[in-house]
Amino acid sequence: MFSTIIATGSAVPQREVTNAELAQLVDTSDEWIVTRTGMSRRRIAVTETTSSLAAAAARRALDGAGLSPDAVDLIVAATVTPDNFTPTVSCQVQATLGCARATCFDLWAGCSGFVYGVKVADAMIRSGAVSRAIVVGAETLSRVVDWTDRGTCVLFGDGAGAVLMEASPAPGVMACVTGSDGTRGGFLRIPGLPIRNPWADATSSTSGGASGASAAEPSVISMDGQEVFRFAVGAIQWSIEEASKLAGVPIGRIRRIVPHQANNRIIDAVASRMRLPREVFYTNLQHYGNTSAASIPIALDEMNRQGLLHNGDHLALVGFGGGLTWGGAMVRWTASATRFPG
Ligand code: COA
Fold first, then answer.
1. pTM greater than 0.85
2. Structural domain tally of the chain?
């Protein structure tokens, strides 16, 4: 048995924030942001939460497939910005949708989380442990952005995207490859809570050794942009090449590559290094910014709804991000995934 994607869904916050609005917050300009990143606007949660966006995206996927909530037996939510430590986003999605039979857990793998989620769901479906899975990537990064740091606050946005996967006799998900390198974790950090109890020294670094959070460290994104840029270019190339080898699909036969939406210049650099036409890479970061684990499934749903995906198309989904983590999934698209109610 294999797994295949049978529906997609996405949801983004109502509030759009333009580059001009960011220029009122920090010393930046529309021209700088567009030239260095390709981004023009992003959506920022005002009334929404990670779990409300995740549930809306998952519901759209479920409705697209025309399935009842009881048909789902696994929900995996990839996020680094859950609303709570517990209950998890996946359990909140379960409660909102009424997927009473589902096993639910969250997966924490930075901006690669969606690809990791597809790999886990694919493995569980192949093993026979489950038959239908929702994998949702959902983030409200705006809650951990330092809105005084022009080097990072212009890059990120909020949103959620989901796929519904089902057991199938032929492989829709053909191959998944992943990798991680914790030794370079310091390039992209969001510190967690410090150890805080009556026995801990409030002034010491307490949650994770040399790179752990200290009591005084705020939980906001910090990044070495140029190191992450260099890492990203290599990680995307590796993920495409390895997924292509494992799936037995030559790179020339990949119809579309759906990369994590971090920066147009990263994607331009990969296209030129791999001598691939730039149009093979789908981008929508101009509208949504970098939505971390949500960016690939939001893009996939947008492509699906725009009729850009056709039966038999080979798609490479490619993630990279904090951890460091990276990964690629080679997917053969099936027409049944392009159904929308009404
Ligand atoms: N507006 C105006 N100027 C800005 C700015 C902003 N929003 N952000 C940084 N700058 C300034 C810097 O302070 C620096 O000024 P200086 O030369 O006076 O010191 C100058 O622009 C160049 O900064 P630099 O960091 O070299 O720019 P860059 O070309 O590397 O672009 C990034 C910065 C962050 C856009 C780029 O490194 C990047 O995209 N990296 C990958 C980040 C990423 O994708 N992270 C998420 C991965 S999941």
1. yes
2. 1
